[in-house]
Amino acid sequence: MHEKDLIKTFGSLVDDALLVIGHDLIITDANAASIRLLGDKVIGTNLNDHIVYSGLAEELSTCLESRKPVEFPTTPTNNHYRHIRARMIVWGKDTVIMLLLDMTLQHNLEKMRRDFVANVSHELRSPLTSLIGFVETMQNAPDMERADRQRFLRIMDEEAKRMSRLINDLMSLSKVEADEHIIPEGKVFVKSLLMATINVLSNRALKSGHDIRFHDYRGQKATEPVIRGGNDEIMEVFQNLLDNALKYSFPASIIKVEMRDDANGRLAINIINQGEGITEKHIPRLTERFYRVDKGRSRQMGGTGLGLAIVKHIINKHRGELKITSALNKETVFSVILPYATD
Ligand SMILES: Nc1ncnc2c1ncn2[C@@H]1O[C@H](COP(=O)(O)OP(=O)(O)OP(=O)(O)O)[C@@H](O)[C@H]1O
Ligand SMILES: [Mg+2]
Fold first, then answer.
1. Could you report the per-residue pLDDT of 240-282, keeping only the tens digit for each?
2. In CATH terms, is domain 3-102 a member of 3.20.19.10?
3. Is the beta carbon of 244 within 6 A of some atom in ligand 1?
4. How far is CA 29 from the centre of its chain?
5. 220: CA distance to ligand 2 center in Å?
6. 0.85 surpassed by pTM
7. Which terminal Cβ of the chain has fewer Cβ within 10 Å, N or C?
8. 332 in ligand 1 pocket by Cβ < 6 Å?
9. Which ligand number lies closest to the CA of residue 172?
10. CB neighbourhood size of 132 (10 A)
């Protein structure tokens, strides 16, 4: 087959960029994916203008001389965030065919996995180091004052509970992630569940002087809203959001819980609190695992930074949506939007 027909015949067969390159690095032909990746003016230009790799000419000579395939990592000049694996094979006397495999997704997933392991290890190590330290101190001071011993034991208890909370949250997260694609079949009576959750937290609210006010705006004739889902999971969503509202709002402020019909005929539950608010740049990242606006402060309050990640996955599983609106020193609104059960 002539090189001219190559792209015409096989170009659309692959989703990745396929290029024909001469010995002078000039691109003589390219498929549609190449144009998507590198821009619309690739044919007739030098490959060096499109990908960043200092040893390009050497790789090409090696490929042409050895007649063996070569492979190297690179990035497109127009987008340094993409990770490409380039493969060249010889075609004819002084022409090579180049395949640019976009590895960005794999690269990012791998990075997420590494970050996750590093985060988990770090979060477990801090309480563990503290526990070991206190055990050693107590072992070396058998005649320690009773009051000191009580204080140390209290801290050890807190640290152990922090580790236990972290492990429970990790298990919750991995469970909901594993079956996120399965639409839950049970029925959830949302208003009753929401009232029950508020009730569970009422003692805590009383202690911090918070006033949780519920209001159903769906009109007087509205019946109990029903969605398809899992009771425990939806309760976990409300618990996490109310826990955050209590933790991150001004002491003794009002927390509003509203129930509404959204513009698209779905059920919206808004949890609104008055606090320091959240700057815009943090908002899209809040549902990432371990993401905390003020790490020190959140840890001090016993947070693991997994709450909203769990919330997000549970809502996804229920084919719903989580909307967050806030700004510095403005009220913060977390909206859980869920489709009503149709049968
Ligand atoms: N209502 C809120 N107002 C202001 N900031 C909030 C609010 N809710 C969450 N945040 C911010 O988002 C971060 C992530 O919340 P998330 O619930 O995932 O973690 P956490 O509360 O720190 O820990 P955990 O929920 O695991 O105990 C928090 O650390 C906080 O910085
Ligand atoms: Mg939380």
1. 999 999 999 999 999 999 999 999 999 999 999 999 999 999 9
2. no
3. yes
4. 39
5. 33
6. no
7. C
8. yes
9. 1
10. 12
